[in-house]
From TrEMBL:
GO terms of molecular function: dTDP-4-dehydrorhamnose reductase activity
Function summary: Catalyzes the reduction of dTDP-6-deoxy-L-lyxo-4-hexulose to yield dTDP-L-rhamnose.
Reaction(s) the record says it catalyses: dTDP-beta-L-rhamnose + NADP(+) = dTDP-4-dehydro-beta-L-rhamnose + NADPH + H(+)
Phylogenetic placement of the source organism: Bacteria, Pseudomonadati, Pseudomonadota, Gammaproteobacteria, Thiotrichales
Domain of life: Bacteria
CC cofactor: Mg(2+)
Pfam families reported for this sequence: RmlD_sub_bind
Textual note on the cofactor: Binds 1 Mg(2+) ion per monomer.
Annotated EC: 1.1.1.133
This protein's UniProt keywords: NADP, Oxidoreductase
Family: Belongs to the dTDP-4-dehydrorhamnose reductase family.
Official protein name in the record: dTDP-4-dehydrorhamnose reductase
Length: 306
């Protein structure tokens, strides 16, 4: 089994290096080894390795900057993804790709299902949706995992920003009218590996491997259980951090709740980013823990007491 991993230095990519390694020969590529904006070189790389599985964790993720860099966002999140899908179809490889809650407009009351209508409100969301559509249109065997509010010990994310700001500032204002599920890169990587193992094992046992792989192909919401606002999330991080001995100039109850309108940003964010992951749980028999489980783990790992 040969696996080609792209975006190996990102939050999710870094964790995939660990979780995919036991599945077979893993070729882990960072941007230097595989730049998704260089389509010819990318195509040649896939042709050279002819992997059984391509896992694409690379993406243009600068959500606000994307409003200015429209072409670049579409090149990496859509065009390059379409090329990977086409290559996967040619080589009969399985393609794993990640997408986002930003494909939704956030107007729904209740958790989003995979079957709900998409309506992205930002360039980033539109470029990620185009990537999803190109994969589906290619006819390759694929898994698209839509996730949200990703965090990890490696990389920049909201939880780490809150830790830094709590140590520096006496006041903190955080948006309280956007809801979602903070999801750990570790969880995403572990679930990816589990799903691949299930599919590959069943394919090897089955008389009809292609049909079986095609049965599993599609979009799955991959998020931790539960939901929270950014404001509640910030309070949780600071409370836990204080209990672990982090320096904090601010108490959790002193974090001020503000509205999205009070904190305007170039790209629009969905007010409701909550996604229902029961299709994933049901199909692959996977348990998705509460978001707090991995946030606790992150803080313990970063803790001065650790
Ligand atoms: N972060 C979130 O909150 C979030 C939420 C929902 C969905 N997602 C999706 O989840 C996936 C993983 O996200 P993440 O949080 O791991 O993102 P990340 O930490 O920003 O990592 C993205 C990686 O992509 C690489 N990259 C960017 N442009 C590239 C290019 N032209 N060629 C090759 N590599 C390139 C970056 O390389 P460098 O290290 O060189 O910059 C980085 O390592 C993405 O598909 C993202 O859209 C993320």
């Amino acid at each position: 089994m040969k696996l080609l991993l792209l975006g190996a230095n990102g939050q999710v990519g870094w964790e995939l290096r660990r979780s995919l390694a036991p599945l077979g020969e893993l070729i882990a590529c960072d941007r230097k080894l595989a730049d998704l904006s260089q389509l010819q070189a990318l195509s040649a790389l896939v042709d050279r390795h002819q992997p059984n599985v391509i896992v694409n964790a690379a993406a243009y993720t600068a959500v606000d900057q994307a409003e200015q860099e429209v072409e670049q966002a579409f090149l990496i999140n859509a065009e390059a993804v379409g090329l990977l899908a086409e290559k996967a179809r040619q080589h009969d490889s399985f393609l794993v790709h990640y997408s986002t809650d930003y494909v939704f407009d956030g107007e729904k009351s209740g958790a989003y299902l995979e079957s709900d209508a998409v309506n992205p409100q930002s360039i980033y969301g539109k470029s990620k949706l185009k990537g999803e559509q190109l994969i589906a249109a290619s006819g390759c065997k694929h898994l698209i995992f839509r996730t949200s509010w990703v965090f990890a010990t490696r990389g920049n994310n909201f939880a780490k920003t809150m830790l830094k700001l709590a140590a520096q500032r006496d006041t903190l204002q955080v948006v309280a009218d956007q809801f979602g599920a903070p999801t750990s890169a570790e969880l995403i990587a572990d679930v990816t590996s589990l799903c691949l193992q299930r599919i590959l094992t069943l394919s090897q046992q089955s008389m009809m491997p292609d049909e079986l792989s095609e049965t599993f192909s599609g979009i799955y919401h991959l998020v931790a259980a539960g939901e929270v606002s950014w404001h509640q999330y910030a309070q949780y991080v600071i409370e836990k951090a204080i209990s672990l001995g982090f320096e904090s100039r601010i108490q959790p109850q002193a974090v001020q709740a503000i509205s999205t309108a009070e904190f305007p940003r170039p790209a629009s964010r969905p007010a409701n980013s909550v996604m229902n992951a029961s299709k994933l749980s049901r199909t692959f028999d996977i348990h998705l823990p509460d978001w707090q489980c991995y946030v606790d783990r992150l803080l313990e790992e970063l803790s001065p007491q650790f």
